[in-house]
UniProtKB/TrEMBL annotation:
It comes from Polaromonas vacuolata. The gene is proV. It is found in: Cell inner membrane. It catalyses: a quaternary ammonium(out) + ATP + H2O = a quaternary ammonium(in) + ADP + phosphate + H(+). Its main location: membrane. This is Quaternary amine transport ATP-binding protein. It is an enzyme of class 7 (translocase). PROSITE patterns: ABC_TRANSPORTER_1, ABC_TRANSPORTER_2. Its EC number is 7.6.2.9. GO terms for cellular component: plasma membrane. Signal peptide: none annotated. PANTHER family: GLYCINE BETAINE/PROLINE BETAINE TRANSPORT SYSTEM ATP-BINDING PROTEIN PROV (PTHR43869), GLYCINE BETAINE_PROLINE BETAINE TRANSPORT SYSTEM ATP-BINDING PROTEIN PROV (PTHR43869:SF1). It is a peripheral membrane protein.
Amino acid sequence: MAKQIIIEKVFKVFGKQPQAAIDLAYKGVSKEDILAQTGSSVGVFDVSLTIEPGEIFVVMGLSGSGKSTLVRMLNLLIEPTSGRILVDGVDINKLKDSKLRDLRRKDISMVFQSFALMPHMTVLDNTALGLELAGMSRKQRHAQAETALEQVGLSAWGASYPDELSGGMQQRVGLARALASDPSILLMDEAFSALDPIIRTEMQSELLRFQTVKRRTIIFISHDLDEAMRIGDRVAIMKDGVVVQVGTPDEILRNPADDYVRSFVRGVDASAVFKAGDIARKSQIIVSENAQKGARAALKMLEEQDRQFAFVVSPAQQYMGVVSVDSLRAALEGHVGPLGLSLAYLPDVEPIAMDTVVNDLYGQVAQCPYPVPVVALDGRFHGAISKTILLKFLDRDTPAVPAN
Ligand SMILES: Nc1ncnc2c1ncn2[C@@H]1O[C@H](COP(=O)(O)OP(=O)(O)O)[C@@H](O)[C@H]1O
Ligand SMILES: [Mg+2]
């Protein structure tokens, strides 16, 4: 079972004068000055977080911001200077040695950026290494290692040796080794950072895939925001030991807390993250489709408001079609009496589904002479995207998305 982690007011100071260092940090003294004055280095400063069972929680930040220190406190590779860490309600600092060993062996596994595969051992034995060190029988550890290799797509390679594997495959063995004990919590410290971009993306997909098979609580450290946005259910951004913002990728892109976060966000490919529903505007003219009348009223409304197009919805808010001043005039030409709007629909208007990523709608928006309607899964009209809206979104100096 995936487990919840609660981090409560946790500090980590390296060095002999933790309290003096913390006092200075509260006064806003910089890390360098604190180190100069006390000889102590503030690694993590007053961090409180709750990580939900089964979520992929990404910790981001520049080098030296405290990410590794934070994650290593979760399995007590580093002991906090103060504060509490609860794993499924249990204060890990109070665990007896044997229980702590159990926690590390069974509940929490760690994957590092680089780890040593033993060249003279098969892939299977390499995968089972942790289990072997824990004293598990050969038969059982091989069975568990095989399951783990299956999960990372390497079941055919158990009998091979590490030097027969590509770099990406070796990294998968590292992941399999962490999965072999079937942990409920996985700590991944820059686990993919050394991989080349294509293999890295592949590994991210792999992680997301095996997360759908069996959910674990995953703390994933990265300094790459694209990676964080892609795999994170939530992301915490660290600076100088402090968590400066926590939120979903969407919340962070939408409302970066400060310039530091903004500087990360600027480099991100927002069009792969945001959906049509995020950028569609509702400020269009909307008219209701009423069986036998409406064309004349709609035309009047457009003329009065000096607008070219209107979106037609049913009484139940279902998207029906688009009409324009010209199409309405043409339909009404020579007609006496009420006329239904449907006779004035512009042809070939395919609405965009709300969950289409912005990357996939350029063509349609560019070709369409009017804003393209965006609909929810159930067909309700959600808004429309004009070329102007799209260009504004792509211009990252203006706010990407209307706050809503
Ligand atoms: N063992 C240590 N002794 C002294 N200072 C340390 C130690 N480990 C980390 N630090 C300091 O703590 C800060 C955070 O480091 P770290 O957690 O490794 O950052 P990150 O993983 O974000 O790059 C850095 O300033 C680093 O110098
Ligand atoms: Mg680190």
